[in-house]
């Protein structure tokens, strides 16, 4: 799946280690990076088989909670990918939140 972000600041925090570590800390940034790598390697049909993932769908809107050492909640909307030669799905991410493990 192709990943894109609604906001440049969020994209930079997710893609530039020093900004992600400043925002979430080293351990949580690592969890965010792992969650995004898993999403990039999957299709929407494969999401339910990802380990440690709780998935909610509402039409094209997805809410994904990766529950590992930190709870990484990613929200976004599925659409058509931008790759001209591939028909990849696109997940337009509009939120990456870290939740309390108790939630």
Fold and architecture overview:
This protein has 103 residues and is of the alpha+beta class. It is 31% helix and 37% strand. It has a 5-stranded mixed β-sheet with strand order 1-5-4-3-2. Strand 3 and strand 4 form a beta hairpin. It is globular.
Describe, in short, the structure shown.
The chain is α+β, with helices and mostly antiparallel strands and 103 residues long. Strands 1-5-4-3-2 form a five-stranded mixed β-sheet. The protein has helices spanning 8-15, 17-24, 26-41; strands at residues 2-5, 53-58, 61-67, 71-80, 89-99.
| Domain unit count | 1
The count of DSSP E runs of length 2 or more, i.e. the number of strands, is 5
Distinct helical segment count? 3
Helical coverage, percent range: 25-40%
Low-confidence stretches: none
- The separation of the N and C termini measures 28 Å
Rg computed from alpha carbons, rounded to a whole number of angstroms: 13 Å
Given the helix and strand composition, which structural class is it? Answer: alpha+beta
Give the percentage of residues in beta strands.
35-45%
Give me the side-by-side strand order of the main sheet.
Answer: 1-5-4-3-2
What general outline do the C-alpha atoms trace?
globular
Mean pLDDT: 89
Blueprint of the fold:
Elements: E1 2-5, H1 8-15, H2 17-24, H3 26-41, E2 53-58, E3 61-67, E4 71-80, E5 89-99
Parallel strand pairs: 1-5
Antiparallel strand pairs: 2-3, 3-4, 4-5
What keyword list fits this structure?
single chain; 103 residues; alpha+beta; five-stranded mixed beta sheet; 3 helices; 5 strands; 37% strand
